[in-house]
Each structure stands twice: as structure tokens, then as C-alpha cells.
UniProtKB/TrEMBL annotation:
Protein name, entry field: Type II secretion system protein
Keywords recorded for this protein, A-Z: Membrane, Transmembrane, Transmembrane helix
Taxonomic source organism: Rheinheimera tilapiae
Top-rank lineage group of the source organism: Bacteria
Classification via SUPFAM superfamilies: Pili subunits
Amino acid sequence: MTTTSRNGFTLVELVVVILIMGIMAISVYPRFISADSETAQSQRDMLLALSHLVQLQSMQDTVNSSTLCPTIVLSATQAGIATTNPCLASASFSADVNDPNQIQFGSEASLAVSGATLPLLLRFDSWGRPTGACSNGCTFTLTQSSATFKVCLHASGFIQSC
């Protein structure tokens, strides 16, 4: 009587193990990535997009920049492009959750700025460099629950997540 020794695994065994690992990974993944961190990350991306938009508007309209004044109004709970008195210190916008040019941070989120104080009016010159309180650069920190994301605005006008 001959005995054969088996070395290795069959294809069926390997497929079953891979399927079980896939099911476990799908069920465990939401514990590592919470909805709060996804919300904070998307709000950081929206803040980056608003900053780039206002910067580009300032760079493209060098003739009328003193009358149009593309401005972002930032507070601890919201940010948006100014629609009322954009050239004045009283620049503001009416909160509208359907406006793509606004970010509502919500009750458990907050925005902080290093290098300036809130509320803040963010404007750029015709070269795309920040003016006013952020002329030497600012770091915006968005915190929601345990998630923290940052946007760095350099004195040269370079805007990035950091």
C-alpha cells in the first residue's frame, strides 16, 4: 500500500480563504474609516476648491479687482464666497446649504486658523498671493470629532492640503 503525501493547498481551499478574508475586510473597514473623517476630508477639499476659485478670479480680473473683490468669508462654523459687500470689511454671504460656493461645518466640526484670527476675509492680489491677515501665510485646521485635516496657504500663493 502506497501513501501519497500532500504538499500545499488545493485551489478550492485558497479561493475559500480569500473569500473569507474579503468578507472580513469589508465588515471591518468602516470601523477604521468613519463618516466624520470622510465629511471632514470632503470639507477640506471644498475649502481648497473655494480658495483656488477665488485666487483664479483675482488673477484673471486685474482691471476690476477693486470693484469685484473676490473674497472668501471664513468663520469657525462656515465658509463661503462673499456675495454682500465683498470689497468691505463687512463682507458676508447668506447661508444656503444648496450653494456649492459655501461650506457649513456642522455642530461637531470647527475651523481654526494659525497666522490669523476668525472671522477672516481671504483675498488675493493679481499675482495670486494672499493679502491681509494671511499675507505671510496661514494654516487652516478643520476638526470634526477625531478627524483633523489642514489646508496650507503659503505667502507665495501656493495652496495645498498639508
